[in-house]
Amino acid sequence: MKIILYLLIIHLMVGTALAQKKSKEIPPIIDREIFFGNPEIVGAQLSPDGRMMSFIKPYQGVRNIWVKKINEPFEKAKPLTNDQRPISSYFWSRSSKFILYVQDKGGNENYQVFAVIPNEKADPTTGVPVSRNLTNKENTRAQIVLLPKSNPDLIIIALNDRDPSWHDLYELKISTAELKLLNKNTERYSGWIFDQKDKLRLAIRSNDDGSTDLLRIDPKSSSIIYSCTVLEEINPINFNNDGENIYMITNVGAKTDLSKLILFNVNTQKEVLIESDPKKRVDFGNAIFSEIDNSLLMTDYQDDKTRQYWKNKSYAQEYNNLKKQFKGYEISFSNSTKDEKLWLISVYSDTEPSMVYLYDRNSKKTSFQYKPRPLLPTSSLSEMKIISYKSSDGLEIPAYLTLPKNVSEKNLPLIVNPHGGPWARDHWGYNPYAQFLTNRGYAVLQMNFRGSTGYGKKFIDAGNKEWGDKMQDDITYGVKYLVKKGIVDPTRVAIFGGSYGGYASLAGLTFTPDLYACGISMVGPSSLLSLLESLPPYWEAGRKIFYTRMGDPTNPEGQAQLKRQSPLYSVDKIKVPLMVVQGANDPRVKKAESDQIVTAMRDKKLSVEYLCANDEGHGFANPTNNLAFLAAAEKFLTKHLGGRYQESMSPEIEKRLKLITVDLNSLPKNNTESPSKINSNSSHDLSETKYVYKSTTKFLGENFNGAETIEITEKGSNWIVKSVKELPIGTVTDNGKIKKGSLVNYTRDYETAGLLYQIGYSNNLITVRKTENGKKSAFKIKVDEDCFADGPIAQLLIASLPLTDTFKRRVLNLDLENNKVIEKIIEVTGIEMILGQECFKVEYKSVMADNHLTTIWVSISNKPKALKYVVQDDRYSEEPITYILQDK
Predict the structure, then answer these.
(1) Is 500 a residue whose pLDDT tops 90?
(2) Known active-site residue 11
(3) Is 521 a catalytic residue?
(4) Would you tell me how many other CB atoms lie within 10 Å of the CB of residue 424?
């Protein structure tokens, strides 16, 4: 008996040891498509009447909107849209009759509002009901402001169709797409607030100095009732039922660090504190209000993890019961019916993206609906640890560390993954990039460096003008912390980020070149100067905030600081390989940002790889593009750090990777060169001649026919040029002296309708004398480079450049209206037939997203000419002005 018992004990011990050994095995490589391919189902919403459930699911390979009856299985759902670009955001109308969604073109962020009727029959040719574009306007960005309760056929939107920088307020009728102007925004309003009766009561105004005013809007006037400085924030979120008080999040006041929730009286300007963080650690987070009676249901705070504070006793009890049911998981109430009897809740953790349940508040029962990624083996994923460390000046930096599962926590390769923004933050929870990289064998560090939001004014202000400096220290010292603890091998560290994180990757390789073995920058700005110059016009409200927090490019000190902090100007310090990833249509960090650093590295014979997708913007929305990028990134990291690598990829991904991989030799010569050097490489010089262009446009509803006459004469080492234009605003003369060969300005005189500019260029200094209606003034502008000869005969000078089908150049011009130098891009965008001749189509435009664009058609010949050009400039005419060269 003892022998049998002994053998049994030995058998159990061996079995336990084997089980422990098996549980400690390194997880197998998880296919990247499981992490980043299309989710099976995501973004479910209940219709307000509770009859339907909508969600996003691939249709013909692209994420689109589907719908089903609430009690039907998902297999019986029908598709509602068949967009070729993934849909990520949609909502129900209050009547439950329509589903509305927003969509842009190729990532340009000019969002339009579309409507589809879920109960409508599908078009046999498309398989889905017809979607209507309710805001069908080119180069316009729509914003959703309000879904009125008083009329469910309306939505309140804002459009920047009149002025790209500022949105006007409109009432939009969903059923007919009828637009009604509510407020022509000539006051720099950046937001509007309606009360519970859908009456416009307040507006937020962004001032020139970056400060913000809250105004009460009365029938015939407006008045300031609350204000904050450029480094403070106010956010009115919900009117009380009494119509006098509004819940508002604010951090206004010299003694206030963490933001708080107050109830503010719009008539008396008295405020009552509702709540601030009970633990005094982080800013106020969110407030959730009841759709039934508008009462405050819950507040939350984004600390190391999310903390929730329920104000409604019934909801609090239900939440606590759900926490017991889903022990070890976080719970988020995401969407409900109008009567709040049914809710969709999300159950998640750091190793579980989401499990979505339907929760019935009457029965207190939950029913499982779906997992977005059911094939994801969550047991193979890694814990996200909460850590902190001190930066160079002793500031405590909160961070998250994810380590490979079942691997010794010693001498690991590390991926540093700073977040974008930078005025954002990382959160605890499932992070696909962290889990993907840890599965490949890397430790992943994600930190909330100074300048990140959520930790109070002092923390975010500590990042002011510190791009590349102390903000970069906060990243660097995280690496040092992990190396000192023995977790990380100091010879195998990479940095990989997007947007600001992409900048931090470039800054890491240039400013701390010995810290990293390689880097990946996705849509990261390489020059802070050109980044600020090219801000989208609809970000005008935040321009002063950018200047305050980043640096002011309008003064010499700010220019010097921003240039020093720009990786582009320190490329020669880079010692390790870099991968650059870009969306060609990115309106925030334009393609030029990536082009210029890639060409600079190529010309210096530094190791660089470049991926650019022509159908993407600020980041990749198309999973095929993202998977192609990640396949390349995974191989890149394996080569330089030694982690695991999934060699296989589908033929579609392999094909896409080839398409988005840029041949470095196809890029033009380094765009950081001065224009004078670029222009000296002209294919031919000017000659004494005379050109006549006939012009056509429309002005005040009438056709206008004009002309431009250009004369070029030779004088010593210069060309003397004279242009006379007949425009709807009158005659414009533009005379100048241009250096031979180099094609840069020497002098220029511009005159029209009582306005005269006399400009001189010498020794990196531009002197401007202005005479307007007899009144004289003058100013000077310092420049580091010569200005390309804008103004007279610009189209002929562009024709003199060595154009090819891939030609692209950055040049400087003088902006007379704003008294500053601006960057412009000259780029060949195609080949077209004009006047019977094959021509390069050349775009000449500011790097800023404005309405000033000149398109020039240059004949492809030994003696190229500008046969046609079109000027789009709303300062001179309602429509573009077209110029056609006449026979001499």
Answers:
(1) yes
(2) no
(3) no
(4) 16
